[in-house]
UniProtKB/TrEMBL annotation, chains A, B, C, D:
CDD domains reported for this sequence: GPATase_N, PRTases_typeI
Organism placement in taxonomy: Bacteria, Pseudomonadati, Pseudomonadota, Alphaproteobacteria, Rhodobacterales
Organism: Falsigemmobacter intermedius
UniProt-recorded name of the protein: Amidophosphoribosyltransferase
PANTHER family from the UniProt entry: AMIDOPHOSPHORIBOSYLTRANSFERASE (PTHR11907)
Biological processes per GO annotation: 'de novo' IMP biosynthetic process; purine nucleobase biosynthetic process
Gene assigned in the entry: purF
Amino acid sequence: MNILPGTPFDCAVDGDKLKEECGIFGVTGVHDASNFVALGLHALQHRGQEAGGIVCHDPIQGFNSARRFGYVRDNFTRADVMKGLPGPIAIGHVRYSTAGSKGATAIRDVQPFFGEFSMGGCAVAHNGNLTNAAALRRELIERGSIFQSSSDSECIIHLMARSIQTTLAERLKDALRRVEGAFSVIAMTRTKLIGVRDPMGVRPLVLGRIGEGWALSSETCGLDIIGAEFVREIEPGEMVIIENGHLKSHRPFAPAPSRFCIFEHVYFSRPDSSYGGRSVYEVRRNIGIELAKEAPVEADLVCPVPDSGTPAAIGFSQQSGIPFALGITRNQYVGRTFIEPTEQIRNMGVRLKLNVNRSLIKGKRVVLVDDSVVRGTTSRKIKDMILDAGAAEVHFRIASPPTAWPCFYGVDTPERSKLLAATMSEDEMRDWIGVDSLRFISLDGLYRAAGEADGRNPEAPRYCDACFSGDYPIAPADKLKEGFEMKEPAE
Amino acid sequence: MNILPGTPFDCAVDGDKLKEECGIFGVTGVHDASNFVALGLHALQHRGQEAGGIVCHDPIQGFNSARRFGYVRDNFTRADVMKGLPGPIAIGHVRYSTAGSKGATAIRDVQPFFGEFSMGGCAVAHNGNLTNAAALRRELIERGSIFQSSSDSECIIHLMARSIQTTLAERLKDALRRVEGAFSVIAMTRTKLIGVRDPMGVRPLVLGRIGEGWALSSETCGLDIIGAEFVREIEPGEMVIIENGHLKSHRPFAPAPSRFCIFEHVYFSRPDSSYGGRSVYEVRRNIGIELAKEAPVEADLVCPVPDSGTPAAIGFSQQSGIPFALGITRNQYVGRTFIEPTEQIRNMGVRLKLNVNRSLIKGKRVVLVDDSVVRGTTSRKIKDMILDAGAAEVHFRIASPPTAWPCFYGVDTPERSKLLAATMSEDEMRDWIGVDSLRFISLDGLYRAAGEADGRNPEAPRYCDACFSGDYPIAPADKLKEGFEMKEPAE
Amino acid sequence: MNILPGTPFDCAVDGDKLKEECGIFGVTGVHDASNFVALGLHALQHRGQEAGGIVCHDPIQGFNSARRFGYVRDNFTRADVMKGLPGPIAIGHVRYSTAGSKGATAIRDVQPFFGEFSMGGCAVAHNGNLTNAAALRRELIERGSIFQSSSDSECIIHLMARSIQTTLAERLKDALRRVEGAFSVIAMTRTKLIGVRDPMGVRPLVLGRIGEGWALSSETCGLDIIGAEFVREIEPGEMVIIENGHLKSHRPFAPAPSRFCIFEHVYFSRPDSSYGGRSVYEVRRNIGIELAKEAPVEADLVCPVPDSGTPAAIGFSQQSGIPFALGITRNQYVGRTFIEPTEQIRNMGVRLKLNVNRSLIKGKRVVLVDDSVVRGTTSRKIKDMILDAGAAEVHFRIASPPTAWPCFYGVDTPERSKLLAATMSEDEMRDWIGVDSLRFISLDGLYRAAGEADGRNPEAPRYCDACFSGDYPIAPADKLKEGFEMKEPAE
Amino acid sequence: MNILPGTPFDCAVDGDKLKEECGIFGVTGVHDASNFVALGLHALQHRGQEAGGIVCHDPIQGFNSARRFGYVRDNFTRADVMKGLPGPIAIGHVRYSTAGSKGATAIRDVQPFFGEFSMGGCAVAHNGNLTNAAALRRELIERGSIFQSSSDSECIIHLMARSIQTTLAERLKDALRRVEGAFSVIAMTRTKLIGVRDPMGVRPLVLGRIGEGWALSSETCGLDIIGAEFVREIEPGEMVIIENGHLKSHRPFAPAPSRFCIFEHVYFSRPDSSYGGRSVYEVRRNIGIELAKEAPVEADLVCPVPDSGTPAAIGFSQQSGIPFALGITRNQYVGRTFIEPTEQIRNMGVRLKLNVNRSLIKGKRVVLVDDSVVRGTTSRKIKDMILDAGAAEVHFRIASPPTAWPCFYGVDTPERSKLLAATMSEDEMRDWIGVDSLRFISLDGLYRAAGEADGRNPEAPRYCDACFSGDYPIAPADKLKEGFEMKEPAE
């Protein structure tokens, strides 16, 4: 049979696609909580565009839910959808659009997941990735569980169903003690809103107050949009249970060193979100400053690759004194792929999205600042466009170290062999892309930009930087069983 | 909480709606089996119009499925749907449109259900109703099962998951020995097509051959459309397992008297389907003949209430000598409800569907033949229309006995208090409807029409006629627990 | 250029498709007139299934309109559509689904057409076909008119725009005096509802009263559904103008002999509609009686080809004494075409729609009664199905004379060479279809059934029967120019 | 009647909505020209988001067209749409989404318009606004033209239909000589691609070469996306006719001074488009530089109001030395309006779209640079957000002079009384918005930024700046008739 045991039959999901980045949001103690969740998910839309779901509870109408493909704005703004989601407590989830077609995901894969237990219903929204999900799934199926989705997150519900604890919160603790990996979870019962981060705190989760109510969000920008006041981050390994307006903090897991995902700073989070009192925008600008120190160059213009390279480009310009300019314009209406008219047009894909300001660029030495290089194919096309427009020189500066290792903690990355930096040195990459110079920020520089004045402490790094370093803080159990080879410890 | 333990949260399904009539179809040993299943389901569309589903298996592409709301013809004719359903074995299901809105059913309620077990996948399509499903569901949830649909049929999959048998067929036997009620089931594994009828054979299931392959269908009309040859009916209590082109018959249940649903003859089955070598059309025509003997009347025209009263009206006309005429025309484009323009129009609902041929009816004494009277409200409206058109007399003749009891075996009936015949005598009904005469066929007459020359044997009736007699061959366990009162045995 | 001058550019409509049958309806003097029009069009849906449109006028909100592809029930039942159609006067149109794909018709071809004139707006709905439309169109374009649709009916609006009359009603008279062909027209201005039939009255149009208001409808069944009382038919060559609750009758055309389309009786009108005080059902039953007299046969069963052959089959049975039976069942869910599974299945198309009642037919001599034979291909397939089911003999009886000539007056017929009866004698057709006998009713028999006791008067036939006789009462000017050859007068 | 003579009936379009900004594109001499047009329109999508249309011609398949609501990327990327648009010549149009609902526009209002004339078909796409359209429309209707859309641009087609010229190009000249106002037009016949600008060249139109073919586009970014080489701008008052690969230039109008719309520089055109060899981005950056000179301020950060204020903010920062920062983040997923959860949330609308980077802004003196102030309501909300985030001071700098007059030449502006600058002085506006300072660039400063070293020459201004100055280069004839009052000449 061509599908793994436990993989649902109408999803042709390959291994990669199960690792997705997501956004989660929950609120309690407000009227029409689902409307707040819709707003929060809208603010978190950059974390997942494929689909979204909301579960809510009302004392009269019980649990209700809606799951939809597409943007939050197109679904959870409709009166017919929202009037079916009443009550003072609600949680929601947005899901990343993986490389495959929408058809590859069944609507039943869209979170939050819901389970009906003898003591009542419970909904769970998960951001992250479980590294022992395949093994757990096999075990659960052996013992009689029927999986309905292809999502590893469904394990949590089935583990709860097997727990002998008598409250849902205790059952959730039981379940999460069995899973390994990176997770931020928002759960709800009829009366409780629950937030949890894994022991290392790989994925973010923040807490806010809105009037007498409370909100949980992947990022602070979700609090801003609903007018909630930021209280604090949920701590690594912490579970907060909010009931009747009161919050209690629990510590269900063994202590572990904190390892927040540094890629949230580099690319994933919105620039107006903050962690540790520092906005992501500022970290990115700092990266640009560090980069200008580490890899200076003589040039006429600093141009960001829109839009994610902009803050680092501003920092690079400010440090280097080279004028900042919007040399590449992004078409905000990019969507489906056009039918290529003829072979007359090269680089169609990138032209649909980006255009070079020819009269600005012509004859100039240009520094292009981008956030990262994954496969490198887009970098080549951008270089072509810039040269076509008559640039005299092109210098790439990358606001992250070389991405040489896949992420197993909730970010969708190609397998290792597809990562340009896994197979080439920096000079080889420069030649392959075809630019005058190419420099990545160092790992230490990145840590400095993120506030670690001394750079990365190899004994106890403050962040998870496995995608750059190959240093995986949580063993990827399922992947090792499939044959993934970790970096040699001596390396 | 306002939903029962185990009821999924986004379905507001009341108790009634769980009892639905359905159609099931399966085929193996042919190329592109799903196309045959689509055709078979199209022929069975009268058994369920709300939604349909197909699961199939292909040696290369494994299990695939599609579930859609709406008619078979609108979904399972599309190349984009069907190309995703490859392979030589497939089963399907059509589901009845219950009174509520489509929104009341989640797509996850649409069968066939599928479970991934350690020994492989299995899909199950169920026609009928399980009378102990609520109790089973509670027990399964206690033991850690997570239900994903509101359908009682899902119990079968979870019971299979709990079985200690090592083959799927044996697990299915285990599961079906635990359920009570009426069921015909078509199931499939990677290589086996399985058909089962409950011990009393309440719901139909027939077997056909197509080339070297085999087909299972609720009715013979499903075999006709694919050009399959009718072989025989699956017997009550029989399980057939077809693998590698060979059929084996099993008897997993204790023997029980056969009690085929007599309402399949009266209304539910298509007139061109046959049971016991006799077409449903002929039984219905015989009912008309018996009715003309039991309840003769002087009149000018015999008119059917379209379309289901037509065969009995033909029989009534042939026996009585009163000319048969199409006095009421049915609009074949009936669909959504129109916005009522003003109160000027009475009886809008029925006018959208039916119109009286005024010049034909005017001044005539008319016998109207209908298949059944449930709430009686439609009968009143039809009587109004006939009188408005100038009929001199209106005589109703009903091709079934008074429907005085709800069905718990898979036909959607209102609760007992809503059934006109549960609260009124025949004369009271006549007066309430407002016609010159009203007569129902006797239970004995109905049995004679169905081939029992001596009428109904009260000691061992050949059919399930609980909706007419209150004689329930299978105790409705869940309903009794909810407070349903059976007929006094002495009555 | 591959499209004729004047043919709009996004319609690839060939000549045939311009000749379509339609249904028209109008009402004035009621609240929310559009709701009545929606109901009337629903009752007339059999006259056109491709698309529908409504134009209405409200003193405050002015003219409004909606045009939609698909059934009336799916579009003009929606609150969002209907609330945009306010006011006490409205007219509507349903359009026939011609052989081509829906894409072949632009929404701008959907009537009623609307023109804004210096004295106000006017909407026009047309049933029929103009035989000099191509010539008129060329002339109008020469003079500066811009056509926006592919419909010949648009000529009427442009002719009105060119008229020097000062009222819209007079301009409509001017326009209709310029056109040739068959037409029933319903038009409206802000205050007037207007109904017109062409001088020969080829297409139907009836008048009804609803409270203090008035209604116009293609058929009486449209009056029935809204509860309107039938008043009379609009007479050939008559124009009625209804304003402020009063009706005035005009005679804008030179007198001409009445030639109502006899095919309305044979097939097109609904059986519960009436013309001349006689229901279409009764005429069809009479045809069956005449047919049994003209072409008797020894047989066991008379079966209609559903559904249109049913009334004639009833008449045939009653006259011949051979029992009437529903030997062929029609699947009411027919829609899109299924993907043919394999070549194992012959006659797929007809099986999707029709199934033979095998146990009823087996070993019987069967008379099949159908309404007409056009290309003959369907007749062959039905014969195959009946023989496959084991019939001993098959005798076809056709409720119309051989269809040997195309219609140019609003019925969509294939070109002459495609009509079976244009190329074969009755015996040749019998052999080609492959039945034991085949007989058509005579033209005289048809006239007798329609109430002409002496049959057809060749000097002054009461009906248009050009499709049977080749006797075209109105010269098809455009077609003659294209090379169509009329029957030799001597023939 | 509530609609003006000549206004089509299913559009409730008020006067304002007829003035819309659009984008036009055409190409000839390439395979599958429509695919190029789709790309060009995609690049011009910022000029009109409501709907788009393409007309093309193929020697075999003749004229074809498609019109769709929504983005180019969602419609003209679909194979089923594009395969219906074959041939080597095509033109297209995108239409601005006016304030009303989509329902307010009928699909028949979507350009290009098409007319079938005796010498063949002609399609016309128009960007701009005709100031005498209402008068022309009335005259044409009097003479027998039937208007099918609410668009004034349709006049062009009807004027062509009335012309006595024998070629389509000459008829187009005739028609355009009759219209007044601002227009750039792209037209096509079977073989000719035609581009025209009005005598003053108010709206842009540029010419490019692609291989052996030619392209016409509203802006140069439309040439870039298809890989065409920019040749030159079409000159004010010029008509170019391209046929068989050759271009001929005509001068059909009386000479007039050039008055290009200066608002194209300020806001409307894409920053990567160029006019007169200078990119729009550079003009906008220059505006920021001029603004920093004219209205300096002590502050900590210069932040753009995203996205259109960005280039001017960069210029302001570079001139002033105050650091540039992205203090406001724009949510790129803005779409439908959310249901407001409760009154707890103020400024919901702007929060859906914009969020302040709190940790960046807190305690800072902020200069906000925006492109323009129309009603001023958004400016107030942005000020609230910035202050809520803890800014110490807020200074608005506006990259255009006060918008005090409506545009009648193709830009959708509110009526004069709704324009903040029409009723308040700069100081009053500052107080009403509630900021520490508010300064607009001067008209002279704007001219300097656009390359006029000496500022605006009041005797012969190089641009149309009516929205700022009230100096209307073309008399708005229809508006004057409706009562619009021009600025006093002495003022």
